[in-house]
């Protein structure tokens, strides 16, 4: 496996369900991110973990709960979601703290539908 | 806060022709990074090209080049010899510094390459 892997690729869940999105990076990066991509909206940064510590929360509702157990893995735990939470959830990783910055590497996303 | 604006929601170009996608940004910083990402139907965001603000020379990557106008805060992407595989959403993005904690995206431009 190379790059950034996200599972599952698609997820349909009811509003009362609890589910988790998983992201794994194989690049040796030290920062990971969750973005939400909704139709006709710019990408929204949800969470940032740098060196396994949460750096940015960005006012995300508490029904979204991130977890970063180590620098290679990132989870997004979901519970009691609303239909407006239906979107593409993208995970990314990067190497921060160096002299130069080379951008993020993204996964292919999880397409979430809340019914 | 930094903002990134892409004023062209949709564009089309004939195969083998050249197309330019526009991007403007707003910042008070003097040193930063700019990126163009491509998102094909496969959904994975792919880095196309990167520009460091302290470098006056415009970045190029094969058929992709940028026109970076720092004073005007403009960062356009030129695609030469357009190919059908270039059909995708294109996002302009801004990063304040090498700390890499927040990549801010524009709203995207949907590019269609026609045969």
Structure description:
The complex is a heterodimer of chains A (115) and B (115). Chain A has no helices and eleven strands. Chain A has strands at 4-7, 10-13, 18-25, 31-37, 44-50, 53-56, 64-70, 73-79, 87-94, 105-106, 110-114. The model of chain A has no long low-confidence stretch (mean pLDDT 90). Chain B has 115 residues and is an all-beta fold. Chain B has strands spanning 3-5, 10-14, 19-21, 24-26, 33-39, 46-52, 60-61, 64-69, 74-79, 88-95, 103-105, 109-114. The mean pLDDT of chain B is 92. Chains A and B meet through strand 5, strand 9 and strand 10 of A and strand 5, strand 6, strand 10 and strand 11 of B.
Sequence-ordered SSE layout with sheet pairings:
The complex is a heterodimer of chains A (about 120) and B (about 120).
Chain A: E1 4-7, E2 10-13, E3 18-25, E4 31-37, E5 44-50, E6 53-56, E7 64-70, E8 73-79, E9 87-94, E10 105-106, E11 110-114
Parallel strand pairs in A: 2-11
Antiparallel strand pairs in A: 1-3, 3-8, 4-5, 4-9, 5-6, 7-8, 9-10, 9-11
Chain B: E1 3-5, E2 10-14, E3 19-21, E4 24-26, E5 33-39, E6 46-52, E7 60-61, E8 64-69, E9 74-79, E10 88-95, E11 103-105, E12 109-114
Parallel strand pairs in B: 2-12
Antiparallel strand pairs in B: 1-4, 3-9, 5-6, 5-10, 7-8, 8-9, 10-11, 10-12
What attributes characterize this protein structure?
A: 115 residues; mainly beta; 7-stranded mixed beta sheet; 11 strands; 55% strand; globular; B: 115 residues; 6-stranded mixed beta sheet; 4-stranded antiparallel beta sheet; 0% helix
Q: Topology as H/E string of chain A?
A: EEEEEEEEEEE
Please indicate the percent range of residues of chain B in DSSP E strands (runs of 2 or more): over 45%
Structural class of chain B: mainly beta
Radius of gyration of chain A: 14 Å
Instruction: Report the mean per-residue pLDDT of chain A as an integer.
Output: 90
What is the 3D form of chain A?
globular
Q: What's the number of extended β-strand segments of chain B?
A: 12
**How would you classify the helix and strand content of chain A by structural class?**
mainly beta
The description of the largest β-sheet of chain A is: 7 strands, mixed
* Largest interface (C-beta under 8 Å): A-B, 30 and 27 residues
**Mind summarizing the main beta sheet of chain B?**
6 strands, mixed
Oligomer: heterodimer
Radius of gyration of chain B: 14 Å
> For the residues shown, what is the average pLDDT of chain B?
92
Low-confidence stretches of chain A: none
């Amino acid at each position: 496996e190379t790059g950034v892997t996200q599972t599952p690729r698609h997820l349909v869940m009811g509003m009362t369900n609890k589910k988790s999105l998983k992201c794994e990076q194989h690049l040796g990066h030290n920062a990971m991110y969750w973005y939400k991509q909704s139709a006709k909206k710019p990408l929204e940064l949800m969470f940032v973990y740098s060196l396994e510590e949460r750096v940015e929360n960005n006012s995300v509702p508490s029904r979204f709960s991130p977890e970063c157990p180590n620098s290679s893995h990132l989870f997004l735990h979901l519970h009691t979601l609303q239909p407006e939470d239906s979107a593409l959830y993208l995970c990314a990783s990067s190497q921060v703290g160096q002299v130069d910055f080379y951008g993020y590497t993204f996964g292919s996303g999880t397409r979430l539908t809340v019914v | 806060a930094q903002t990134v604006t892409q004023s062209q929601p949709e564009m089309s170009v004939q195969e083998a022709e050249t197309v330019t996608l526009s991007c403007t940004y707003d910042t008070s910083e003097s040193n930063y990074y700019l990126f163009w990402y491509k998102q094909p139907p496969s959904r994975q965001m792919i880095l196309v090209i990167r520009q460091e603000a302290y470098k006056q020379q415009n970045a190029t990557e094969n058929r992709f080049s940028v026109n970076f106008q720092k004073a005007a805060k403009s960062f356009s992407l030129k695609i030469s010899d357009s190919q059908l595989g270039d059909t995708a959403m294109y996002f302009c993005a801004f990063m304040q510094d090498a700390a890499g904690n927040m990549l801010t995206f524009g709203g995207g431009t949907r590019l269609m390459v026609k045969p």
